[in-house]
Amino acid sequence: MYNLVLDSFVGMNHHGQSTILGCALMENEDIQSFKWLFECWLRCMGGKALKGILTDQCASIQRAIELCMPTTIHCWCIWYIMKKIPSKLNGYKGHNEIKQEMSHVVWNSYTKEAFDRNWIDFLRKYGHGGNKWLSEMYEDQHIMIPVYLDHHFWAGMRSTQRRESMHFFFNKFITRNSFLRQFVK
């Protein structure tokens, strides 16, 4: 009804339960909107930036984090990326097998050197050395591959599924026809 985007900050409490830390209704998902969101967050937190943030592959979020919270460790949700494989590699024969193999490389490479070696073997095996999307994934390995991020504390979170479950919760009570005051209540 209002064409607003709901964005939320979801964390985990000491019992391992999802906890909503904050949320915002935004006009759109451009850099300026996310910059506004992070500036509001910083004001509410007394200028203290997040230690780490886990997001989907939104370039606008990434740029806003770089501008507003340059010391924050930014990580992409690997679950979200793996979910894209069928659409990104759908033209390739056996994309389900490719997805399984890529998942194996991502989750079972315990050193950076092993990841590099396994990734190259994976590309050779399937003949995808020239695939643009896979090349971009490799370039961004430092913000999505677990072995590059394991030295940071993530409270067991590896995906944005906790945020998605919070959105599912809101969707049970709020529809496109709801008024803003219903959302706040």
Automatic annotation (TrEMBL):
Protein name, as recorded: Protein FAR1-RELATED SEQUENCE
Purpose of the protein: Putative transcription activator involved in regulating light control of development.
GO molecular function: zinc ion binding
Principal location class: nucleus
Record family assignment: Belongs to the FHY3/FAR1 family.
Compartment(s) of residence: Nucleus
Keywords, comma-separated and alphabetical: Metal-binding, Nucleus, Zinc, Zinc-finger
Organism ancestry: Eukaryota, Viridiplantae, Streptophyta, Embryophyta, Tracheophyta
Annotated ranges, domain MULE transposase: 2-84
One Gene Ontology cellular component: nucleus
InterPro entries to which the protein is assigned, alphabetical: FHY3/FAR1 (IPR031052), MULE_transposase_dom (IPR018289)
GO terms (BP aspect): regulation of DNA-templated transcription
Keyword field contains Membrane: no
Coiled-coil annotated residue ranges, if any: none
